[in-house]
Automatic annotation (TrEMBL):
Gene3D superfamilies associated with the record: Jelly Rolls
Pfam families: Cupin_5
Coiled coil spans: none
PANTHER family per the UniProt record, alphabetical: DUF985 DOMAIN-CONTAINING PROTEIN (PTHR33387:SF3), RMLC-LIKE JELLY ROLL FOLD PROTEIN (PTHR33387)
Annotated InterPro entries: Cupin_DUF985 (IPR009327), RmlC-like_jellyroll (IPR014710), RmlC_Cupin_sf (IPR011051), YML079W-like (IPR039935)
Name of protein: DUF985 domain-containing protein
Domain DUF985: 16-158
Amino acid sequence: MEQYSTRSETYNCECRYYKLTDLQENQIASPFADHKPRPMSTSIFYLLSHDRPRGVIHMNKSVTYHVLHQGRARYTLIHPTSPPKIEHHIMGPNEAEGETRMLLVGTGVWKMSELPQEDLDTAEAAPTDAEREQARNRVNCLITEVVVPGFDWDDHKYLTREGLEKLFEGDEEKFKRFERDLKVVR
């Protein structure tokens, strides 16, 4: 995991590391983007790391498959229905505990990912600096995201404060819970 946490990635707008791993050259008309041409698919490595353990709430118009390579991540999905439906999924290797190695997120669903707090706490509790650093690197989570039709920034958006207020209108508790997960605009 260390090679992914320091050397191979680009730092992206979600404040995580990512690396494009495949971009199909063939184009198709995307039914989710007014039939504009998009690559058939794209895929990336996406890394949540102990130094950047949280993503921000965002939405893709295309379907996204998340496939676990290593580690664990907690995904929160918010379906913008009335009332909003909130789901939590742990991507991890322990299927007996309900963890999953693959997560499909459909179109029009808000999502965010984070390293589980208990994993971060365990890493920080290591008795020596050397053991703590090793534990921090073991906490990192590497996922492949496959987007179909392929990813395009025009098909992506971040949840804004105004959007969050509208989504959870009248529910101050949920608004406060998710406010920390909004992208900070500078």
